[in-house]
């Protein structure tokens, strides 16, 4: 998970006789992209054609569907530019530059702590972001990225594209063949693909791209993935790992399991309910596997005990020199104190945030955002700086689907949970429910709010604080009443948990770096994932699981063998029809040792020539522990082979235009 | 939680100037009872009138209801014996005698381990039980009770009563006022009461009983509870506590949370669905609170670290004397080994057992029970000895309600979970699902099975192994195919987990006892709860929570103040009508320092004169950690005051006959 400005050249040369040239690196950066909602992608033709996962386009396919078309389930096909349709609320960003701003942050926050530190940090981040956006927030997106847990801070600037159109997506049954039972397992037999196209001023954009290698990779071959791993915690202290195990993960697992049970039953009620809920259900199941995998690893591995020893050793190294004591202090003690505070604040602060999802979350964004906008830029919280308002507006204005029954069920469940956790007499619960029960409150709010219409959301957003204060929308009214308590909780949390943790972690990270430098090991480190562009390298290699060797490739033949005809092992009709026309030994999916985590979905697999050979869509079960550490013997990235993609487009979907565009690199 | 044959007389005399006489003890034993399904109860008139909780009679009230009567929700009322109705499948047991059989067990199992130990133990337990039942299993129930984790083994003999009739139950809205938000919280405002009557040969039985004190207890008064605490684990080793925290509890919490989410949505679908699922939903929520409370305590308290020190100290005490080494060995090492095995077996063994609930569980009982019956008594597993077959038959023959949609949903969810956890290619999953999906398998099995009719269940049971092998009932067919794998898993688990854990725990318990005796502290110990009769003492006292003093009593006045009119804070119409006729300062509920856990529900609170002064129905939140330890400053038992019961019967429910029976002690 190397940052593009700090690639492990020496190691690559030594082990693979390959050194990425500046041209190679620039080509990969400019051909790679990030989907704002949390996926990775790549340009695969000079005419703005983008390759990503089917599951990264779920929300788009859902939104384009209507009662006569279920594009998510049945696929989406076009044969001309005119048929390509804009994905509501989808944004694609491409990395433009990286700048180290550690010194600016240090200067602005020197000698400050608690609220003063939060305020100063907020102000400098706001100023840096504003300068970076250069007065054009629709064109540029600028993110402050805290690397090495604050050991380094960088400013990442992206070119934004907001007109992204659906070009082609296969059926859900082949994109997610094997369904949840096979998810995070291997062998897999999936073409988890969607093709999008980026437009500007009504025409496809022209960008650098990864030429499509129609043969895929060979066993043992060196391959790269370029993507945006979401979040890892490989640098957490032992105390924070324990906090994850004992507080955060149980909470996340329980709330998502409850939601999973609810959605499971909701989907069984009717075909409409199944269609409405399938996207959320998939997200919830994915999140659950991730959290459960991490939790399993925290419970059964020796990672916490190991980290505790490392922490003790680092503190001992600090204590051994008065100059180091002065510089780094006792950061682990500060972590302990912040976590103690966090434990008392979490049920109300995080509980409330979890309860306000969906349409209630939109109302909160409106109340919060318009209140923040009344303040000078430097005094606003992260996410609400002038440079970032474009993103909020795009989200509020998007034609996202609104399912009243599902919204009501979700909100009612969230309110029930909140009341259960905080108790009936808690003031937050009282503000939300009054003397009423969660079900009728949720039904009333969802039925009577006008916020399901993007026009109304935008009108309030543009009307600002005054319009929101004057609004009689029942959902706005209740969130407005709740807002002072929410803002106070957030401030308490930011000042007494986030700020001291940030400071302590910065000191820990810098002490680790200094310690590593003193041992000559500083170049062997990469920062934890931060949903910013990273390059990972590896080879196409199977692994051994419970004594069984798992081969790196699967084939079309294996897929047909596993097709029982019953979901989730039912193949779409097109695939049944095409069986005799496909070569059974065509490679379908493969695994490699690339280090990926959530957020890497949709990453291209790239060969040393800079050509696309695969499309990342999953990791194996052990890779879930990748959040905490990477184990080359067990962790595997799972990708669809480009040879399967080309065969499917030509033989199954009869899409020669698209297949030709991939083969030639342009339309 | 003292056993009746080992009461803390010295302590009671010293602190309360009270010594229970043999007459007092006998009177309490004979007036107390256990409901076989997992509750406690007491006789409160000479004519077999029994007092227990509303939530202990849920299943009965559900079963008696039909589409015109919801006795669970609206209450059940009678004005003559003729109107009293038998509760299907309800059994009440009254303790008859306790016999120490430790020496018999030791003799039979001396020098054996693994499968040989399991077999020998099974055989001796079967023989002792058979002798105890004395050829009359309908009249006597005999349980082998392992006390002090095997340090002592006792044979408990109960007089069985299988004709238990519903006499009176108030509405669910007053029995469980405050609902789930208030559950395990205090102050409470509930009358969690049901009145039953035990019959024999068609007439009420005559038994000793607790005279009803219509004034309830005073603040500070010494009170006793006589009941059947289900299970505590206060004697677990540190390794087992860690296993609970890391393996067992997460599993239980996740599976029940998933079920909770499903049932929550199921209940919202229609009034019928709500009625069908309310009993299960309540059980699931209760179970969740219990497991979550224990888990919270394991995570945040120092109990595991403390126990680890105690374990180390005990092993050191053993190691200090070669004779002790010879006698006790290294039991903690044996515990570790058994837990390692348990961890590998749990997903399949426990996963399968959890999946086979409801009607599938009935099918398993039939296949398993008839197979066991083909063996000589001594070679059968616990639960299947001749003396216990009456209980199985009673369960199979009971007219319990059967809701096909709820059964289908529950089974489909269970099968989905099993497939997810074991993987699609697991042989167990394959046997259950074939090439089909969980939903259609569940729908087919529930629709086509004939086991919902008790006549068919009994016919198969009576036909024995031959009838079950010949059955073409689809559910029997699939369970029959599954049975060999299930039986093998169970044998593996019993031989390699249960047996070595039992042996190790017996050695640990005896070493602890010997160690305590060497320090003169042996009399201060009571065994962990085992759902067998126990006496606990305490005083009526509030406590301090987050700096606030909680008063011991609540009143009718407080209840009316909390009645918002919306569920779960809506009072039944009868209570709204009676408001002006009730005295607001009448005591409603109270807390005491009595040490109770799940299973104590329905226990009488008894004063030093042996009179009933209250009815246990809940504990406060800290009491959930009572599974692991008892803290007198925090743990509180929650009871309904007898003064509230008498007032409610006379003034709210206009039941003078019943109130008079309580006041006079006979009809």
UniProtKB/TrEMBL annotation, chains A, B:
Highest taxon of source: Bacteria
Functional description taken from the UniProt entry: Catalyzes the removal of dipeptides from the N-terminus of oligopeptides.
Protein's organism: Saccharibacter floricola DSM 15669
UniProt EC number: 3.4.14.-
Similarity annotation: Belongs to the peptidase S46 family.
Enzyme class name: hydrolase
Keywords of the record: Aminopeptidase, Hydrolase, Protease, Serine protease, Signal
Keyword Cytoplasm: no
Record carries keyword Signal: yes
Designated name of the protein: Dipeptidyl-peptidase
InterPro entries for this protein: Pep_S46, Peptidase_S1_PA
């Amino acid at each position: 998970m190397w940052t593009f400005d700090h690639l492990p050249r020496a190691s690559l040369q030594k082990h693979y006789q390959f050194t990425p040239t500046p041209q190679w690196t620039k080509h990969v950066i400019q051909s790679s992209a990030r989907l704002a909602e949390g996926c990775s992608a790549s340009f695969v033709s000079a005419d703005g054609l983008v390759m990503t996962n089917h599951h990264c386009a779920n929300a788009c396919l859902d939104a384009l569907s209507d009662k006569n078309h279920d594009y998510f389930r049945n696929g989406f096909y076009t044969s001309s530019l005119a048929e390509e349709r804009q994905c509501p609320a989808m944004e694609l960003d491409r990395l433009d530059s990286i700048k180290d701003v550690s010194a600016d942050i240090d200067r602005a926050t020197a000698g400050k702590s608690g609220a003063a530190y939060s305020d100063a940090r907020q102000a400098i981040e706001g100023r840096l972001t504003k300068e970076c956006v250069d007065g054009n927030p629709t064109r540029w997106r600028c993110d402050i990225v805290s690397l090495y847990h604050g050991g380094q801070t960088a400013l990442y600037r992206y070119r934004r594209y907001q007109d992204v159109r659906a070009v082609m997506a296969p059926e859900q049954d082949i994109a997610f063949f094997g369904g949840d039972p096979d998810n995070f397992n291997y062998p897999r037999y999936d073409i988890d693909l969607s093709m999008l196209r980026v437009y500007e001023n009504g025409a496809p954009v022209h960008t650098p791209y990864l030429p499509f290698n129609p043969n895929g990779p060979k066993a043992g071959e060196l391959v790269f993935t370029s993507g945006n791993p979401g979040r890892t915690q490989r640098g957490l202290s032992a105390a924070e790992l324990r906090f994850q195990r004992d507080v955060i993960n149980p909470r996340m697992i329980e709330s998502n399991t409850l939601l999973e049970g609810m959605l499971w039953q909701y989907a069984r009620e009717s075909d409409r309910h199944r269609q409405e809920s399938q996207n959320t259900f998939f997200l919830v199941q994915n999140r659950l596997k991730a959290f459960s995998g991490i939790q399993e690893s925290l419970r059964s591995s020796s990672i916490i005990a190991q980290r505790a020893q490392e922490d003790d050793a680092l503190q001992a190294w600090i204590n051994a020199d008065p100059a180091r004591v002065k510089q780094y202090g006792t950061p682990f003690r500060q972590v302990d104190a912040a976590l103690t505070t966090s434990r008392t604040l979490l049920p109300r602060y995080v509980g409330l945030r979890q309860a306000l999802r969906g349409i209630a979350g939109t109302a909160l964004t409106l109340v919060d955002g318009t209140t923040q906008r009344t303040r000078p830029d430097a005094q606003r919280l992260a996410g609400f700086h002038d440079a970032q308002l474009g993103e909020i507006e795009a989200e509020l204005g998007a034609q996202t689907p609104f399912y009243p029954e599902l919204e009501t069920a979700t909100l009612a469940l969230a309110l029930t949970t909140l009341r259960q956790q905080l108790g009936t007499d808690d003031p937050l619960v009282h503000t939300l429910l009054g003397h009423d029960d969660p079900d009728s409150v949720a039904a009333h709010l969802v039925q009577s709010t006008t916020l399901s219409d993007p026009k109304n959301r935008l009108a309030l957003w543009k009307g600002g604080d005054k319009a929101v204060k004057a609004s009689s929308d029942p959902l706005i009214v209740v969130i407005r009443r709740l807002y002072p308590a929410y803002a106070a909780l957030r401030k308490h949390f930011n000042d007494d948990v986030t700020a001291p943790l940030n400071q302590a972690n910065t000191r820990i990270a810098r002490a680790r770096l200094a310690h590593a430098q003193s041992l000559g090991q500083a170049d062997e480190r990469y920062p934890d994932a931060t949903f910013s562009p990273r390059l990972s390298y590896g080879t196409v290699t199977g692994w051994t699981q419970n004594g069984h060797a798992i081969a790196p490739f699967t084939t079309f033949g294996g897929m047909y063998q596993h097709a029982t005809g019953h979901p989730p092992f039912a193949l779409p009709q097109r695939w049944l029809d095409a069986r005799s026309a496909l070569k059974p030994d065509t490679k379908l999916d493969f695994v490699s040792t690339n280090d990926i985590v959530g957020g890497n979905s949709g990453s291209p697999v790239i060969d040393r020539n800079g050509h696309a050979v695969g499309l990342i869509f999953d990791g194996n079960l052990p890779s879930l522990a990748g959040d905490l550490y990477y184990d080359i013997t067990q962790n595997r990235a799972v990708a669809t082979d480009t040879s399967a993609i080309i065969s499917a487009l030509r033989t199954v979907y009869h899409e020669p235009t698209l297949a030709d565009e991939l083969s030639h690199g342009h339309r």
